Predict the structure.
Amino acid sequence: MSTARTVLETEEHQALRAAVAALGKRYGRDYMTTVIREGNHTDELWAEAAKLGYLGVNLPEEYGGGGGGMAELSIVLEELGAAGSPLLMMIVSPAICGTVIARFGTEEQKRRWLPGLADGSLTMAFGITEPDAGSNSHRITTTARRDGDDWVLTGRKVFVSGVDIADATLIVGRTEDARSGKLKPCLFVVERDAPGFVRNRIDMELHAPEKQFELVLDDVRLPADALVGDEDAGLLQLFAGLNPERIMTAAFGIGMGRFALSRAVEYARTRQVWKAPIGSHQAIAHPLATAHIDLELSRLMMRKAALLYDEGDDVGAGEAANMAKYAAGEACVKAVDQAVHTLGGNGLTREYGLASLITASRVARIAPVSREMILNYVSHQSLGLPKSY
């Protein structure tokens, strides 16, 4: 094994990648399309991934996790995606919610949630987006006010994944600073049966096992220990979850792009219209090679972001995670588009399982933050250019 290879990925990471790839292959795209068509959830794959320790690989060992970090968890999601069976809730439950609770939760909160998030018996959703706030988190209007020892939460959230299967939702609200009177972001665990916590399913064109919901919080009363972390930490705790979200969204996009590309390459090797397989023609081969290069470059940036995050460099990880998410989103869309184009009419059939990815691949561009907002981040934070807003 070359030195360069071991520097890029440890033997343990390579072993994890191979093991998860084997799991993904046992399920594959046919499993995912069947689950979607029948309106079910990926319960079998989720349970097996949990049993093998993959879902909680990033969580602390003392709470049942694998003791790893985002480097390991991103490998799991990428390889499942490359097999055609990505688990979107991995982005939300162990990556965002598990990380936030592990870093900032009380001992009681850790004991309550982390073992279940690690072994897959508990799942948690994440609610930040609002109808009128969009990408502007400063316009979040979901507010929490104190009432004795309790908190009372009021507001709305949209595009919250998996609330129907989640045991609780980590809600981003805002509390009033007693000194300045300004609102600051805070995180609250809202259990699914909390009075006043209502979910309404959003009718999506996106075909996925994970459904999207609008949430209405109508004076939801929460105990004091529903607050995660320090009331004054605000953005620090929020971005502790958002950086893993971007890293995992990159993994999601890279995995999907790899799956689409593998289908296209297999087809181009064997499909013969004239005297040679179509993959011998540069008009077919070069765009596929370009897609492969873009996916590999995205993976390198994702790995950089994961390593920086796992080392505790939140600032460095923020820049790299945004870049990785941007690059992976673009690479995913282009890979899917080129794969469908390579197959021609077959690319639109159910048999090959690519047509549904045309819509799904847009997710990596749009969520959890648009590519334009990432370009804003890079232009302001990395290049030092002035803001336009």
